[in-house]
Amino acid sequence: MPVIRGLGGDFYFYWAARGVSKLGSALTMVALPLLVFELSGSPALTSLMVVVDTTPMVLFGMLGGAVGDMWPRRTIMMIADICSAVALSSIVICSWLDQLSVAVVLVAGFISQTGEVMYDGANWGATPALVQRDALDRANGLVWGTQSLMELAGPGLVGMLLVVLSPSQVVLFDVVSFAASAVLIRAVSTTMSDHTSSQTARIRNIPHEIANGLRYLRTRAGLARLVGVGTTASAAVGAMFGILVPWAVERLDVPSSGWMFSIMMASWSLGAAFGAFATGRVRAGERAIFVTRRLTFFASLCCFVLIAVSVWWLAAVILVAYIFCHTAQYMSVITLRQRIVPSAYLSRVNAATRVVSYGAGTVGGAALGGYLATQFGYSAVLCFAGVLHMISCLISWSPKLAVLEQEAQDEVASTA
Known about the structure:
Elements: H1 10-40, H2 43-70, H3 73-96, H4 102-123, H5 126-130, H6 136-161, H7 167-186, H8 199-204, H9 206-219, H10 223-251, H11 259-282, H12 288-307, H13 312-340, H14 343-376, H15 378-395, H16 399-415
Helix pairs in contact: 1-2, 1-4, 1-6, 1-7, 2-4, 2-9, 2-14, 3-4, 3-7, 4-14, 6-11, 6-13, 9-14, 10-13, 10-14, 10-15, 11-13, 12-13, 12-15, 13-16, 14-15
């Protein structure tokens, strides 16, 4: 498999594809719920967009990981981009024909998200195939930092576009972004994987390959504990994000519209961007467990400090620090896995980890956070999140995780 030394060539096509696609998705993330609400006037139907966003990962996450390990990753990513573009274009076409309905929007959104899940399954193994192992920190920092910046810019850009365009016309930008991403991925010269078995055999063996991936994750010393670290931390972040809007409005007296509200919401993405870029610059992946132990502890402190904060701008600053800690820890662990997991298992291991963390962790944390907020108030949710981060920190002290970190450092040393 060809590997680009350092960062350059194929990696920059891939990086551009991720940035363009994520900007389009950030626009759609705002435009689709608004479109459903305009068509139905129903908050309940509008909330279904959240289900549409999360269900494909739960249903197809492991399938995407298995397919990502079994087929050429570049081909999968191109097909996924095209499918997402076609699905969303149905919204634009139906709007032009004055035939748009809530059902069309929900189905198109579900298909598009399913395409993104399949793309992500292949995406997990892409970066290690395009850069040297000792450049993974920088590469991941650039990719994930850029994605965070796109997610930060997206909502503000939607606000400006909606002055002159309808929500369905804004969706057209995402259609174009997926098409552009497919073109950029096509420009990558490597398949990002190497497979020799026939497609028919692979189709028959998908359940078996999924089971193999789960078996590898379960039996590989330390990886299961790493999933525990990520799941508890994701549950804490889910609980925090779930109460962010009502907490800001009711506890911090932030108006539900205007510049103060925008700053509070932007603090989340800003902290993520800082965390991702910082991870790349300091090569945190080489000391991922060291970083995890400290940053999960500081994230826990941020939660407990926020209990006593009632000034909105101070809360926004602490939120930036909180998401910085979480993102930097998350990115360092991703890089660690990319260094120690064989390419043949990368997509399945990372997809399984995300299904557990995102499905059971984030969604479960948000649900429990909402219940705690209703029954006991926002301070209970902040305390709950702080305790979860502390548990994540305690899990990270497992000796088996230190062994994984040493393996990653040995891998870098052997390829330097």
